Amino acid sequence: MSLYRSVTDFRVEDVDWILDRAARIKAGEPSAQLPPRAVVGLAFLESSLRTRTGFAAAAIRLGATPVEVLGVRESAVSMPESVDDTLRTLAGYCDAVVARVGEHLVLPAGVQVPLVSGGDRGLVAEHPTQALIDLFALTRLAVPVGDQVVALCGDLRMRAARSLLLLLEAYQPRRLVLVTEPGLHEGLTVPEGLATLCEERTLGDIGDVDALYVVGIPHGALDEDGRTRLRVTSAHLDSLPPRARVYSPLPVIDEMERDALHHPRVRMFEQSDDGLYVRMATLELVLGLGAPA
Amino acid sequence: MSLYRSVTDFRVEDVDWILDRAARIKAGEPSAQLPPRAVVGLAFLESSLRTRTGFAAAAIRLGATPVEVLGVRESAVSMPESVDDTLRTLAGYCDAVVARVGEHLVLPAGVQVPLVSGGDRGLVAEHPTQALIDLFALTRLAVPVGDQVVALCGDLRMRAARSLLLLLEAYQPRRLVLVTEPGLHEGLTVPEGLATLCEERTLGDIGDVDALYVVGIPHGALDEDGRTRLRVTSAHLDSLPPRARVYSPLPVIDEMERDALHHPRVRMFEQSDDGLYVRMATLELVLGLGAPA
Amino acid sequence: MSLYRSVTDFRVEDVDWILDRAARIKAGEPSAQLPPRAVVGLAFLESSLRTRTGFAAAAIRLGATPVEVLGVRESAVSMPESVDDTLRTLAGYCDAVVARVGEHLVLPAGVQVPLVSGGDRGLVAEHPTQALIDLFALTRLAVPVGDQVVALCGDLRMRAARSLLLLLEAYQPRRLVLVTEPGLHEGLTVPEGLATLCEERTLGDIGDVDALYVVGIPHGALDEDGRTRLRVTSAHLDSLPPRARVYSPLPVIDEMERDALHHPRVRMFEQSDDGLYVRMATLELVLGLGAPA
Fold first, then answer.
1. Chain C residues contacting B via beta carbons under 8 Å
2. Structural domain tally of chain C?
3. Which stretch of DSSP H or E encloses residue A215?
């Protein structure tokens, strides 16, 4: 199995290993060393900041060097090359490939190295490594995930949210609070294992929340009234318990008021920074470096 | 001599060395180590997938790190910088440069490091490293190149085909079969040393061919009837001898029927993968690492 | 202090150290070794050739690997991410960041690593590392900077010129000659410490100049008559003393006549090449590797 498109392509023991390993790397434990002169391919046919540069840095910290493809080959004299052929070609030069291809990610025939999604598109779009980073953030709180009230605010159909919900199904927080709008969860099925833990609320009712996860709302997905109802303000953050932390896969454009971004509960950039360790651990795992059998 | 624009800028003994060296690297022999912290410049002012990422990976496998320039410097306040100045500047920071500049490649004044073409344009456009990869593929067949019937199908004016024909002139296959259309070889002169080996045929008459090389046909170079006559199908591939192999510099857009791509005779992606070793050997040669004096 | 936006963000002893260190590296002295697997972020949201590839190569020569961001994250479903968040995110993965962001560079909250300008914009736009390279070029002349007549020709408001004038204020050449046009220094205040050294002249009167620095003139900043008056010709260069050298931050588009570019006094590409050593020394300094306390 060398495709990691969904977060469910990681076994629960893999996820446990990644979380533990990321914490150890963050604490200063030496990371594995990739085979000398290893190459990690980064096929980002769609724009990406965090995932692309985060995996580039993770590869480098492991002793490898990234090679990027930021668009399909096009020229005046030929049609664009297919995504499959692009990935297959790049994979032939690399020890692993991380890809965001702008469509549902599949493993092209002949790819022999691990292929990790950097976020895909389609009806069951996911962003598995972002969700691993988000879950890692939850594990950094004082109380264990199983005792946390976790709130997700925004468009629950976004790929990072879908992956996180699948992870939370396995990790079972005490309660799952959804802050959203009609239309932002059309077609979304909350994973079965979360059904009994789950309730909808407004931002006015988050006083018991341990972790508020600001999902993001795509441009144009909601009218301004709806955006306003879901916009996180300093007052909302003040209503959280002191132990609470606010996370986001970023970027945050207008999903939070600008002055709320610097509220003492907000840990979005620490979460982003820790993404480096999670991506290092993920690369170690998919490359079979010390990961569970 | 530090410009490698044409495949004839490599001496025959250089080509022999590259082919032999690539085979050894593929077989697991350690590659040379570039000077510590070496830099290989990749100036690809035109889109490239295989050549750019292949040389990036080759540089890394040799212990170097690539630095890319993917367009000339432009800004709101200045005219585009010249190709010559772009190459000269980059070369000043690098141990070697591979370049695809969208025009006939020349060695700019002051460039002190090897400059290797990644495919150029113009009346005598070539793609020397692609042709080395193609010749390497031929050497992987069971019979030596000198005993092979080699067929080229498509637009023989394409730069990779021009370079390959020049190499085949030196390596003299048993027979050279050209499958093409009027208009796709206008202005093309088959190298003199191939004249007596050379004959034109259709795809219906390739039953004795050892290696079928699908050149590619530029978008718009041929009407649909012509494209259809040159489109390789599974039936054509079935008509080849069992020992035969099908190669291509890729990408293949519509030059082969989609289901023919997975025919057991097709080795295009293996050829692409082996390009890594040929590019490593080429970098070793131009940098004087163990190559013939 | 971890922002280096202006050349004045480097103390004079820092500049001295960089110049001396660059000369030693050029002479073959081993450079410092960055922490193993170090990452240098290159956020070039505007086009750059020399500064971007020069810092990439400098990082590699020091044992680090660059990670590039060449535009802000954009997608069909979200607004562009802010420059601040882009820099903050990248900085979280890196040991140092060099940035050209297309606006006045500020240190975003939370950035913990050195942030070096690769040229910014605005009313006090600067290009500090280019000016360090330019000053290094002056120190390569036979006579010390303090005994030189230095001439700047072109648009003195350009960011590299502003930074160089600030450096020259500290290094006090014997005389500063300005060759410019009304309109090309509107709003420019020559630094106070240069006032008594400074005089305006034409290109016809540079017979005592030791170093002629061709600043460049933005496209559209001047009518053709003005451009002609400031265009450096071979005749102008012949009028310089034999010891004189001609420098430029490059690119030179039409600020010099094409045949003047190869005049024996011209050292623009040597200056560009030496930029590698200055950038290596600059990275060493901002990372605290052996630099003055």
1. 46-50, 53-54, 56-57, 60-63, 65-66, 216, 218-221, 250-254, 262, 269, 272-273, 276
2. 2
3. strand A211-216
Kindly list the partner chains of chain A, i.e. chains with 3 or more CB atom pairs below 8 Å. Answer: B, C
Per the CB < 8 Å rule, is C37 touching A60? yes
What does the block give as tokens for B149? Answer: 């019937």
| Residues B174 and B200 both lie in one domain | yes
Residue A99 shares a structural domain with residue A12? yes
C-beta atoms of C81 and A57 within 8 A: no
Supply the range of the domain harboring residue C212.
128-272
pLDDT tens per residue, range A124-158 = 999 999 999 999 999 999 999 999 999 999 999 99
Cβ burial C172-210 (10 Å sphere, 16+ → b, else e): ebebbbbbbbeebbeeeebbeebeebbeeeebeebeebb
Q: Are residues A107 and A75 in the same domain?
A: yes
B107 and B176 together in one domain? no
Please report where in the chains the tokens 């070369």 appear, as a residue: B91
The CA-based angle A248-A252-A255, given to 5 degrees, is 95
Angle at A38 between CA A37 and CA A39, to 5 degrees: 120
Q: Read off the pLDDT of each residue in A270-280 and give the average, rounded to a whole number.
A: 98
Say whether both B32 and B79 belong to one domain. Answer: yes
Q: Classify residue A15: in a domain, yes or no.
A: yes
Task: Report the complex ipTM.
Answer: 0.95
Q: Which pLDDT belongs to residue B185? A: 77
Give dist(CA A82, CA A70) in Å, integer: 14
CATH of the domain at A267: 3.40.50.1370
- Taking only Cα atoms into account, the Rg of chain B, rounded to an integer number of angstroms, comes to 19
Average pLDDT over residues C95-108: 97
